């Protein structure tokens, strides 16, 4: 019996290729077995060669010739040289999983923020934290004039330099808040309060700002949008070491998406099939009790995520009812996103990394991009480049949604 074992799960051959490989395997096995029974007679009668010399001189050559022959035949058949099994035609890319609003449908979609479906006491709780309060919360969003987008920036209490770099560059003229938790330093807390008195753009929640509390901070942002900025058409979650090309973003939202908003949109840099780290030497180590599966669901790398408002509300409601898990990107945009039956949309080449951005700054040649990981020390140079050579996106990015379910793997 012939069989083919594919140990690499990333290789998924078509049924036609599998059938062809199986036929080649069987044909090769038949010829080798047949040659074993007749080779002695052929070479003894024709060449006058004994068994020992036959084995030593001719069998390796015969094996090479047979192998080369069947490789050539296989390639010939795959290239259409002779009739063979039918081959699968590649499927077209899936249709976008999000809905863009326009004048014909905007009145038909319900308000995404239905506070009546939230649990009793939701406003004063944050996941498993009760008696939650906002220590700082200035009215950034004006309900009479809702913004096209609002930016919620994850920041650490001591990152005043990062926040100043953002305020002086890409965050200068957008609706923006910085999310922080509590600090054990009285001096840092006083500095935060002075900073907020001057800029009125800080949101502080009643939990300790720490690495293991990032999920609290992520849900804090979703909570703040739900209760204090529900009129925004889009919500961008990002970090304080990310440069947002806000002129390009505004053009992208109004021309490539819709100025009226969208539904079921989660646009980000998607990480697929990440394995759970179990090593005690890894800062990302997760125990089996914390996360039982071997693989994480597909999730967003959290440095820049563009949400539609309904995605914000549904993820917030699900997070409030779910057990806490400390890796916020996995929990919010992986596990919970799968539960609400939403899919990611990849930002593709419009989300760029630091080396490419620095090279762009050095050359003085601006490329189309939405977000970039970048040290704040480069923000001013890049902002000057953006303002001197602003460009309008000519084509939509490779935002092909991945509807592949984690549960189906």
From TrEMBL:
Any one GO cellular component localisation term in the record: Golgi membrane
Membrane topology category: Single-pass type II membrane protein
Family of the protein in this entry: Belongs to the glycosyltransferase 31 family.
InterPro entries tied to this protein: Glyco_trans_31 (IPR002659)
Enzyme Commission code: 2.4.1.-
Stored PANTHER family: BETA-1,3-N-ACETYLGLUCOSAMINYLTRANSFERASE, HEXOSYLTRANSFERASE
UniProt-listed Pfam families: Galactosyl_T
Any GO BP: protein O-linked glycosylation
Enzyme class: transferase
Molecular function GO terms recorded: hexosyltransferase activity
Compartments where located: Golgi apparatus membrane
The name this protein goes by in its record: Hexosyltransferase
Keywords from the UniProt entry: Glycoprotein, Glycosyltransferase, Golgi apparatus, Membrane, Signal-anchor, Transferase, Transmembrane, Transmembrane helix
Entry superkingdom: Eukaryota
Gene3D superfamilies membership: 3.90.550.50
């Amino acid at each position: 019996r012939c069989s083919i074992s594919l140990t690499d799960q990333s290789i998924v051959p078509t049924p036609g290729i599998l059938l062809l490989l199986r036929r080649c395997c069987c044909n090769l096995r038949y010829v080798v077995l047949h040659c074993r029974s007749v080779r002695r007679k052929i070479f003894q009668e024709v060449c006058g060669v004994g068994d020992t010399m036959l084995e030593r001189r001719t069998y390796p050559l015969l094996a090479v010739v047979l192998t080369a022959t069947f490789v050539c035949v296989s390639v010939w058949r795959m290239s259409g040289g002779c009739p063979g099994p039918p081959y699968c035609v590649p499927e077209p890319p899936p249709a976008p999983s999000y809905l863009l609003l326009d004048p014909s449908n905007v009145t038909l979609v319900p308000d995404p923020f239905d506070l009546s479906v939230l649990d009793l006491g939701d406003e004063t709780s944050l996941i498993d934290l009760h008696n939650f309060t906002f220590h700082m919360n200035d009215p950034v969003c004006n309900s009479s004039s809702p913004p096209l987008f609002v930016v919620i920036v994850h920041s650490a209490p001591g990152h005043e330099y990062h926040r100043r770099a953002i305020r002086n560059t890409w965050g200068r003229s957008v609706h923006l808040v910085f999310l922080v938790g509590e600090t054990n330093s009285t001096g840092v807390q006083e500095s935060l309060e002075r900073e907020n008195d001057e800029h009125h753009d800080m949101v502080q929640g009643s939990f300790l700002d720490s690495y293991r509390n990032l999920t609290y901070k992520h849900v804090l942002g979703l909570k703040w949008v739900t209760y204090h900025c529900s009129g925004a058409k889009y919500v961008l979650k990002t970090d304080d070491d990310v440069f947002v090309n806000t002129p390009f973003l505004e053009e992208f939202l109004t021309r490539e998406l819709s100025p009226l908003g969208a539904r079921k949109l989660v646009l980000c840099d998607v990480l697929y099939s990440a394995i759970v780290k179990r090593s005690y030497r890894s800062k990302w180590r997760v125990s089996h009790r914390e996360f039982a599966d071997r693989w994480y669901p597909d999730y967003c790398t959290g440095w820049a995520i563009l949400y539609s408002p309904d995605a914000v509300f549904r993820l917030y409601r699900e997070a409030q009812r779910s057990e806490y898990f400390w890796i916020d990107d996995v929990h919010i945009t992986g596990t919970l996103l799968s539960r609400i039956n939403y899919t990611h949309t990849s930002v593709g080449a419009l989300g760029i990394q630091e080396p490419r951005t620095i090279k762009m700054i050095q050359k003085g040649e601006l490329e189309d991009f939405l977000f970039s990981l970048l040290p704040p020390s480069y923000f001013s140079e890049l902002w000057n480049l953006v303002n001197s050579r602003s460009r309008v996106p000519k084509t939509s990015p490779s935002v092909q949604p991945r509807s592949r379910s984690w549960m189906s793997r």
